[in-house]
Design a protein that fits this description.
Chain B: Pfam families: ATP_bind_1. Chain B: This is Signal recognition particle receptor subunit beta, a GTPase. The complex is a heterodimer of chains A (125) and B (197). By secondary structure, chain A is mainly α. Chain A has five helices and three strands; from the N terminus they run H-E-H-E-H-H-E-H. Chain B is built from six helices and seven strands. Chain B has a seven-stranded mixed sheet with strand order 2-3-4-1-5-6-7, sandwiched between helices. The chains are: A mainly alpha (125), B alpha/beta (197).
Chain lengths: 125, 197
């Protein structure tokens, strides 16, 4: 098989090995804090973490989030689907272990200053 | 701040805000190539689980009976400054995964529609998608070697692109060329914002 991506995504062999609700204890998307794919998350520095109370994946997330990361980056780096990462993160946020910042949205139009900063940032590359 | 070994960012709990630009276009138009040419990190890929029967429905009970599929999204990152990070998302090429574009599109600064001159028609749906949602976009014609070179105005006519939408020729493999495309987009967004007020 030269290219795995050619597999029909709808075929059974392309399905996940672990159902998402196993990792999230059956909790569903609707329980989650509103997190976007580009919400930026960071481990709260002062939090005393009781690792025994956490899923191994959550410990890995905390470790990764010592630097600010987007939800999408956490998902990609730990190879956990975005929807599952959101549930694990919202639990960590609920425990006060992780802080999150929502992205810019259409409800808050981008200011001229931000656009100029983006333009400058692109041109500096 | 400068001390080694400690992590300054988490120490102060300063959380940057994020903003995103979408890179759309047909399958094989060069989306991931463009993301990679400007990203400061090697492009990452994330998988989103999709339950086809549960679109728009929060309740996932009974999910066992439905077909689950995964959709890969490639993305890159550009740190703008301490407080702002730009993410570039390559959108899924296959038409059947478009339902996830709404989350992707929500709050995006704008989009680049990559046109492949060998298959110009494959970017029609992307153009249509952004036009309907009034998301500012530019069309970037990826000049593949050996492919016929179009004049941007020929592309405009072929795709019925509005005269206000910029069309640029590019080489998605080139950082300079991709930077120019992104700059064109941001300037276009600024004009759109100014015109909309």
């Amino acid at each position: 098989m030269p290219d795995r991506h050619e597999t029909d995504p709808g075929s059974p062999e392309a399905g996940p090995l672990v159902r998402p609700y196993v990792m999230t204890w059956g909790r569903q998307r609707s329980d989650a804090v509103q997190l976007d794919m580009i919400s930026v998350v960071i481990a709260a520095r002062r939090a005393e973490v009781d690792e025994m109370a956490l899923e191994p994946e959550q410990v890995a997330i905390l470790d990764l989030c010592r630097r600010p990361q987007s939800v999408a980056e956490v998902s990609a780096r730990l190879d956990i689907p975005v929807a599952v990462v959101k549930v694990l993160l919202s639990d960590l946020i609920g425990r006060g272990y992780v802080l999150a910042r929502a992205p810019y949205t259409t409800e808050s139009p981008v200011s001229r200053d931000v656009l100029q900063a983006v333009l400058d940032g692109i041109q500096r590359l | 701040m400068a001390s080694k070994g400690s992590d300054p960012s988490s120490g102060e709990n300063v959380i940057p805000s994020a903003i995103k630009i979408l890179i759309a276009g047909g399958f094989g138009a060069g989306k991931t190539t463009m993301v990679g040419s400007v990203s400061e990190i090697a492009p990452l890929s994330t998988e989103e689980l999709m339950t086809e029967a549960s679109l728009g429905v929060d309740d996932l009970s009974g999910v066992e009976e439905k077909s689950t599929t995964t959709v890969a999204l490639d993305f890159g990152r550009i740190t703008i400054n301490d407080g702002l990070v730009l993410y570039l998302f390559g959108t899924p090429g296959q038409q059947r995964f478009w339902f996830m574009w709404d989350e992707l599109a929500l709050g995006s600064l704008g989009a680049v529609v990559l046109a492949d001159t060998r298959r110009l028609e494959t970017c029609f749906p992307s153009v249509d998608f952004f036009e309907r949602r009034a998301i500012p976009f530019v069309v970037a014609v990826n000049c593949f070697e050996g492919a016929h070179r179009y004049d941007p105005e020929e592309v405009r006519e072929a795709l019925s692109i509005s005269p206000h939408t910029p069309i640029v020729l590019c080489d998605a493999r080139s950082r300079e060329s991709s930077k120019e495309v992104l700059s064109t987009l941001v300037n276009h967004v600024a004009e759109t914002v100014a015109a909309g007020v």
